[in-house]
Amino acid sequence: MRPFFLLFFLPVLAFAQTTPPDPVYPIPEARQIAWQELQYYGFVHFNMNTFSDREWGFGDEKPSQFAPSALDARQWARVAKEAGMKGLIITAKHHDGFVLWPSAYTEHSVKNSPWRNGKGDLIREFVDACREYGLKAGIYYSPWDRNHPDYGTPEYITYMRNQLTELMTNYGELFEVWFDGANGGSGWYGGANEERVVDKLTYYDWPSMHALVRELQPGAMLFSDAGPDVRWVGNEHGFAYPTTWSNLMRDSVYAGMPEYSDKWAMGQENGSHWVPAEADVSIRPGWYYHAYEDHKVKTLPELLEIYYQSIGQNSSLLINFPIDTRGLIPDSDVQAILELAAKVKEDFAVNLATGAKVTSSSNRGAGYAASQLLDANYSSYWSSAAGERIASVELDFGKPRSFNRILIQEYVNLGQRVSAFSVEKEVEGKWLPLTQGTTIGYTRILRVPDTQSQKIRINFLEAKGEPLIAELGVYAAPALVFPPKITRSTAGLVSITASDPGLEIYYTVDGSLPLAGKNRYDKSFVLEQPATVQAIVVDAKSGKSSATSRRELDLVKGNWKVLSSDPKAQAAIDELPNTYWTSLSNALELDLGKKVSLQGLHYLPMQARYPSGFIADYVLEGSLDGSTWVLLAKGEFANIQNNPIEQVIRFAPQELRYVRLKAVRTVDGNAATFGELGTITR
């Protein structure tokens, strides 16, 4: 009987050992799993605001204003596809109430615009373009409506349901329905120019609204601050957090909740529902197109940082394209997003872990071995032995390899588990710390300094259940060779910053072009005299050099004073371009601290997201004593509204201590604003 017992017992043991791990709740639903796999998709903001040059329309706009000259939704889809995005979401209705389809329930619609002679349906063109390019289509719908006369009454809720029914039934399958959290305020409201306030928690009857969408679009993800399927990351910078849980105490939040960002945006380890984060950000400061932001398209370093701090920190990434008045993504924005796509592809071109020997401190049994980590199949995963929440996996490359990126994917279909982990490298037989973290989630990307080692070990230190890890990747991302940033403080301290750690910087101050290997920048230096600073970055590994950065520096501002009783006035000369001062007198009087020979002045307009008070017509005066003033120049800053970059005023050389710049007229009639003033002495 003994042999029979052994033969019987062993298979039973093996079967018990390979039973799948128990879920750690909450866990994602099927539509959430499908959405998670997308990770990266786009937003297009194009609506009445494009033509009124606003971010939030007032609701009093006329349908006739909507008149794109060359609208092509296929261009949007093509750019998104080339950028590596998996879907697009369009602003079907924003706060002004204008809708992009011929709705039967409002006249504030494209059907009364000159576009396509009133016969157009932009939602149809949009979803058709998405499907042509293999993209999923999504809809943004603002619950707030500053045009509709019934807003704030029960009748408006019926209107919302009717419009959502049109959108959910007429355009095929949608992957996401996006509800904005902005609600209630001043508006036109059908001609009644007034303020209307609603109870954000109860007014929209969100349970029934969500049920309607769920019935008509069962596969669509429902987005709002509070979910129910996907939540806002809590900022518009595109950044998730080093600790980001997909769990949320969903019943404790609601759309438009004032304290949401501070209390709930990171999720909660013990959250009651699976509501993963979506990081949204525009490729420009604004969500809608404004010509005055043409010089503010995010740079490649900025976009790459967003990528790593969103997708790399357990969030999806939603990047917005402000469509211009032609109805196209501007060329500069296209170039920027395609540069990002190329760089991401370059960073993750070769997985150094492929072919490495992988072992673990324990495993659950057949089907859960450490080899599952390198099979490029998210559905298979390594699990530690049953009940073991502390475990480790080790990669042996066979020889020393250089790397600077580590990618870890948790198998979140059975719940997010890991709350603390560390990574070590082996050096001469000893394990040394490399980095550490808290949550992992669907994807965690660790950026580490350039490291050479034959072996690395990942230790899972705290978890809500056995760690379940689907994939590991190790990469050597080439350095981002991008022109460096040159800044100077009011005390004259010049700093030059490279686009990536580990790059070498070379510079000149005599007007000559910088050369690799000559005059290396190692630390900040004082430069009090006017000079031209030029710099490049060099990657010693590849030998690549960046284009040259150039910065004209004039007089140091340490002893300057803006003659005003307003303590905020110094923001106009603080060498920080994103600060500004508003002058209620429409003038700025500046004491340079001593007599100098001047031949010009720089004026940088306000650079904030919602600019105001750009100087259009000006008078510039100078004085030696602050009492007797002479006219230096007067004129117009041509096209400053659409091109708010640094403006230059030149005049015949004069010995001066005081200058006064007056706004004769501002672009919008508001008080003059000053981003930064600077002198020209040569």
Helix content: 10-25%
Distance N to C terminus: 104 Å
* Spatial order of the strands forming the largest sheet: 1-2-3-4-7-8-11-12
Poorly predicted regions are: 1-17
* Protein structure class: alpha+beta
Q: Just name the CATH architecture of the largest domain.
A: Alpha-Beta Barrel
Beta content comes to 25-35%
CATH class of the largest domain: Alpha Beta
In short:
The protein has 682 residues and is α+β, with helices and mostly antiparallel strands. The protein folds into 4 domains: 30-344, Alpha-Beta Barrel (TIM Barrel); 357-475, Sandwich (Jelly Rolls), CATH 2.60.120.260; 485-553, Sandwich (Immunoglobulin-like), CATH 2.60.40.10; 561-680, Jelly Rolls. Helix 4 runs parallel beside helix 5 and helix 6 packs parallel to helix 7.
Secondary structure elements and pairings:
Blueprint: H1 2-17, H2 30-36, E1 40-45, H3 48-52, H4 73-82, E2 87-93, H5 122-132, E3 136-141, H6 154-170, E4 176-179, E5 185-187, E6 194-196, H7 206-216, E7 221-224, E8 230-232, E9 247-248, H8 260-263, E10 273-274, E11 277-282, H9 300-310, E12 315-322, H10 331-347, E13 357-360, E14 382-383, E15 391-410, E16 418-427, E17 430-437, E18 444-463, E19 468-475, E20 485-488, E21 493-497, E22 504-508, E23 520-521, E24 525-526, E25 531-538, E26 549-553, E27 561-562, E28 581-583, E29 587-604, E30 615-623, E31 629-636, E32 647-666, E33 672-674, E34 676-680
